[in-house]
């Protein structure tokens, strides 16, 4: 019998444990401090003044913050829906087909991941400004930056992330079931619907949750392509911080943090349920 991996002993175990504790403290201490002081009854952010939930009430009573929150949700849901469809199609095209310009398409698809956010933000700003100027002059329209430009920009960078996750799932799949379905005279659509899609569903769900999280958290690109009356919650918080940090910002940040954690937990739950259904 082959021996299993050796366990660390003595000083090695102590050093590894201390390192793990320091890493966890480094990651989670700021989150804990943020959550605690979001309930402080003192207007100074870093000073405890007793327990209160009034800052959350102020957040909910602020119409600008509520409008920004619903704007973020609308943009995130719509951009995620479109990104999942286009990203999944791109992943299928790259993994299941071959053509002459495939490498070029592959490189262009992953550009939003490689280039800095500010570079893409400037690109999108110039694209919309130039495109709207020409369209408005030629057709007499009145297009301007707002909900549509924010959503399109989020779709532009989310497609790449969805494609990576789905493509990784496709790469780990066996082609035997698809080949068997085609041998039984199933069309490409039926093969995809009844064989391929059920297997890549966890990848699609993971890509969707990743796209949703990225859309809800984006600041740089959104700030460049947003217009009057179309401000997402992260951009609103960023503008509030420049004027001075208040406990309301703590409350808003905690709400955004909880939303992100819920998405992560949902992703893990979907993967566990999917894994259980496959093994069952």
Q: How would you explain this protein's 3D organization?
A:
This protein is an all-alpha fold. It has helices spanning 10-37, 54-61, 63-96, 102-109, 111-114, 117-139, 147-171, 176-183, 188-217, 220-225, 233-243, 247-279. The chain has two domains: 11-52; 63-279, MetI-like fold, CATH 1.10.3720. It contains twelve helices and no strands. α3 (63-96) crosses α11 (233-243) and α9 (188-217) runs antiparallel to α12. The protein starts with 9 loop residues before the first helix and ends with a helix.
Q: Can you describe this structure in just a few lines?
A:
The protein has 2 domains: 11-52; 63-279, MetI-like (MetI-like fold), CATH 1.10.3720. It contains 12 helices and no strands. The chain has helices at 10-37, 54-61, 63-96, 102-109, 111-114, 117-139, 147-171, 176-183, 188-217, 220-225, 233-243, 247-279.
Helix/strand layout:
Blueprint: H1 10-37, H2 54-61, H3 63-96, H4 102-109, H5 111-114, H6 117-139, H7 147-171, H8 176-183, H9 188-217, H10 220-225, H11 233-243, H12 247-279
Q: Given the helix and strand composition, which structural class is it?
A: mainly alpha
Helical amount among residues, as a percent range?
over 70%
CATH architecture classification of the largest domain: Orthogonal Bundle
Give the domain tally: 2
- Kindly report the average pLDDT value: 86
Q: How many strands, what sense, and barrel or not for the largest sheet?
A: none
**SSE string, helix = H, strand = E?**
HHHHHHHHHHHH
The number of helical elements comes to 12
Q: What portion of the residues fall into strands of 2 or more residues?
A: under 5%
Low-confidence stretches: none
Fill in the CATH topology of the largest domain: MetI-like fold
The CATH superfamily of the largest domain is: MetI-like
Shape: globular
Q: Span from first to last CA?
A: 30 Å
DSSP strand count: 0
Level-1 CATH class name of the largest domain = Mainly Alpha
Radius of gyration: 24 Å
